[in-house]
Amino acid sequence: MVHKILFWSGFGVAVRLWQLGIEMRPFFVKEGLWAYPVFAGFGASFGYWLTGVERRQMQVLADRRDRLLEKRKRRAEREAAETGGNGNKAGEGGILASTS
Q: Are 2 and 28 in contact (CB under 8 A)?
């Protein structure tokens, strides 16, 4: 989590440098140094928010995976009960079932 926040705070500083480069202004002017921590703070807050979004998405995916696995388990149990518990479907006819 910390590495993502540090990355996005560095990205905020890079955005500030990019902005000054586009404006063709000097990067380090004594009156403008206050903006770097502000941009880094905005970047860090975005990184923190993004980490929370990722955590929530992973939880939703894990819950969905668990529900699907439980559904597959119930379906396998139901199919096993329908076929007599041995899993042999030799008596069932299908498209390619032999006619003899």
A: no
35-64: pLDDT as tens digits: 889 999 999 999 999 999 999 999 999 999
- Would you report the helix, strand and coil content of the chain in percent, each value rounded to 5? 75, 0, 25
Tokens of 72: 């597959």
CB 45 within 8 A of CB 22: no
Task: State CA 15 to chain mean position distance.
Answer: 25
Structural Rg of the chain based on CA atoms: 29
Q: For tokens 């000097």, what's the residue?
A: 26
